[in-house]
């Protein structure tokens, strides 16, 4: 496979997976840190994914990086492809730079083109090629040898900005140009249909986030009520057994989550095992879906039981709504929230599997 094709595929993958990379880096999905020491030299391409990536050494090939915080202070001989929460490039790069991040700081020279997407972007080092940028607030305060194409909320040309080619940009307002800034080519400005002020954009994001939260609660509540109406006695049994044997069920759920797909895939090596594996994987998918919806129901019933200090287990629209809201709100807490929701899902998977298996054995 040609190297240029591999680089393009890597770039597309990084940009497409940027949200996941950021979430994993912030919330602990990656190892805590990845470091290339100052005196180290990587003769080939370098790959790293971590909560914090610190590249102080030299990389002769490409640097392909993902994480919460990415710092590159050492030189990179070829391309840099990075996706993260914060990307800080202060080392020189021999070829292209492609970055997707919330905050991007380009403080080291770039030997060819710069392609960047992010929220707050600052370019304060010379770029030997073209610049293509999409972001919120973009500051250019360094020489750019080629053309600049930008779709931004706000564009600022600092006193050290010297653009050797054309400046083509779309923004809410005309660029803020400081004394000393120069553009050798043609400036083409297009008024964005709506960009709004920083406060307005933040307000829209908050409203969208609030709406998404309400939708998640509504979906969990609606499906939870549907399950309760269709399988009332079953739901009551799941909740009671799920709470009384909570940690045991969570452990069973974890085992099922890991073991079942492995066994099903291994069984596919035989012709006879293929239909059975497909059937088991279908049941596995149903079980996971039920776990996602019964987990919040168990959470709501447990919270109500603790609040009322009752000895009875209750499943009704109040506990289902309480569980849906609680699971979504708790899920907003970094690390702990996601872990809590995951454990309740495991407990639901464990109790559903064991309860239905026991009922199946009893009916035989």
Structure commentary:
There is one protein chain. The protein has helices at 3-16, 18-27, 198-230, 232-244, 246-267, 273-308, 317-330, 336-363; strands at 33-36, 41-42, 46-55, 58-59, 63-72, 80-89, 97-106, 114-123, 131-140, 143-144, 148-157, 162-163, 167-171, 176-177, 182-183, 187-191. It is α/β, with parallel strands linked by helices and 364 residues long. The chain has two domains: 3-195, no CATH class; 199-363, no CATH class. Strands 1, 3, 5, 6, 7, 8, 9, 11, 13, 14 and 16 form an eleven-stranded parallel sheet that branches. The chain has a three-stranded parallel sheet with strand order 10-12-15, with no helix packed on it. Helix 4 crosses helix 6. The N and C termini lie far apart (57 Å).
Question: How is the topology of this model organized?
Answer:
Blueprint: H1 3-16, H2 18-27, E1 33-36, E2 41-42, E3 46-55, E4 58-59, E5 63-72, E6 80-89, E7 97-106, E8 114-123, E9 131-140, E10 143-144, E11 148-157, E12 162-163, E13 167-171, E14 176-177, E15 182-183, E16 187-191, H3 198-230, H4 232-244, H5 246-267, H6 273-308, H7 317-330, H8 336-363
Parallel strand pairs: 1-3, 2-4, 3-5, 5-6, 6-7, 7-8, 8-9, 9-11, 10-12, 11-13, 11-14, 12-15, 13-16
Shape: elongated
Q: What's the pLDDT, averaged over the residues?
A: 85
Give Rg in angstroms: 27 Å
How many strands, which pairing sense, and closed or not: the largest β-sheet? 11 strands, parallel
Number of helices: 8
* Poorly predicted spans: 1-31
Helix content: 40-55%
- Our measurement of the CA-to-CA distance between the termini, rounded to an integer number of angstroms, reads 57 Å
Q: Please provide the count of β strands.
A: 16
Structure classification? alpha/beta
| Strand proportion | 25-35%
H/E element sequence:
HHEEEEEEEEEEEEEEEEHHHHHH
How many distinct folded domains?
2
